[in-house]
Amino acid sequence: MNAYRFRRIAVKVGSNVLTRKDGTLDTTRMSALTAQLAVLHQAGIEVILVSSGAVASGRNELKTERKLDAVSARQLFSSIGQVKLINHYYQFFREYGITCGQVLTTKENFSTRRHYLNQQHCMKVMLENGIIPIVNENDTISVTELMFTDNDELSGLIATMMDAEALIILSNIDGIYNGNPSSPGVSVIREIGPQREDLSRYISTEKSQFGRGGMLTKCRIASKVADEGIEVIVANGKRDNILLDLLSPEKEVLATRFLPAPHVMSQMKKWIAHSEGFAKGELYINDCAYTALLSSKATSLLPVGVTRVEGEFERNDIVRIMDPKGEAIGVGRIAYDSDKARQVIGHKGGRALIHYDYLYLD
Ligand code: GLU
């Protein structure tokens, strides 16, 4: 084991870290972060970088007089900005003799198990060959309904998919505050344990200046990823030497750590946990099934516990599970197509609709 605790990490750098106040790309910051990533890489840590900043740097590059709608602007700016961004990374990493590669993805690439495994394979090959993958959303082709909420969501998916031991989310604040950061007496929460309280009461819903994300999504993603057994650290990417300080066991650094759940979830469950957005239908369950699923025992969802099936789906698609009040409580990979599911529900016996290994409850 190296001196930095981890063998494989994902690092997400937000647009606000990479841009100056005037919106220009902060190449000094990029160079400093690259230098730290190079140290980690050379120490034997496999690093996956999720970098925002394409839209922000493209916006600044192009001085257009034309009025653009939001989607066109994002598509146009990212097409220019991504080239600029990756070129800088390429040059900076080259100074350390390190090669980086670009992975542009969309939400759809996480929607089927086949796509998911393809993508995972590509990044595994990169790591095996000593290449640092630099991931961003393919903003030029992703449109509103099919977009990630922001790159925090993307980085959570990537960390999970690649079995990273830690995900470090760098933005322009020191961590998650227990109130409005500008109010007196408010401080950074240093540690959030696996028994997570509801953090939403602390958190402002303000969006960041250049990125899409906000604190609330950051917290939601961080908790979910930590529940899957991955440590998540939210820290200030504008602080000098932040990455090396965070990972060095001797340093005390201001940041919020979401402690990982003690058991690492299986790869299949991790994929299912992030598949809510791809659900093709709903299964409404009765009180008995609800109680059984929520008990501490590993329980599959049987046909007898389901009262209604909504939607059209194929076998192995993702479906939502709805409690007796009609609230979504989780997702699972279904063992029947929708016609067959409608035939078997309410009947005793028969194969589980959703096996425990393919079931994820919120
Ligand atoms: N993919 C966007 C970009 O590179 C950033 C999305 C976000 O703000 O998280 O500009």
Verbal overview:
- It is a single chain.
- This protein is of the alpha/beta class and 362 residues long.
- It folds into 2 domains: 8-265, 3-Layer(aba) Sandwich (Carbamate kinase), CATH 3.40.1160; 275-361, Archaeosine Trna-guanine Transglycosylase, Chain: A, domain 4 (Roll), CATH 2.30.130.
- The chain is built from 11 helices and 13 strands.
- The protein has helices at 15-18, 27-42, 54-61, 70-94, 113-128, 151-161, 215-227, 242-247, 267-273, 287-294, 338-344; strands spanning 8-13, 46-51, 100-105, 132-137, 166-171, 191-192, 231-236, 256-258, 281-285, 306-311, 318-322, 328-333, 359-361.
- Helix 2 (27-42) crosses helix 4 and helix 6 (151-161) packs parallel to helix 7 (215-227).
- The longest helix is centred in the N-terminal third of the chain and has 25 residues, at 70-94.
- The two termini are 34 Å apart.
- Glutamic acid (GLU) binds at residues 15, 52-56, 78, 136-137, 139, 150-151, 211-213.
- Glutamic acid (GLU) binds next to helix 3 and strand 4.
Would you state the CATH class of the largest domain?
Answer: Alpha Beta
- Shape from CA axes? globular
Mean pLDDT: 90
Number of domains: 2
Query: Tally the helices: what do you get?
Result: 11
Set down the secondary structure blueprint:
Elements: E1 8-13, H1 15-18, H2 27-42, E2 46-51, H3 54-61, H4 70-94, E3 100-105, H5 113-128, E4 132-137, H6 151-161, E5 166-171, E6 191-192, H7 215-227, E7 231-236, H8 242-247, E8 256-258, H9 267-273, E9 281-285, H10 287-294, E10 306-311, E11 318-322, E12 328-333, H11 338-344, E13 359-361
Parallel strand pairs: 1-2, 1-5, 2-4, 3-4, 5-7, 6-8, 9-11
Antiparallel strand pairs: 7-8, 9-10, 11-12, 12-13
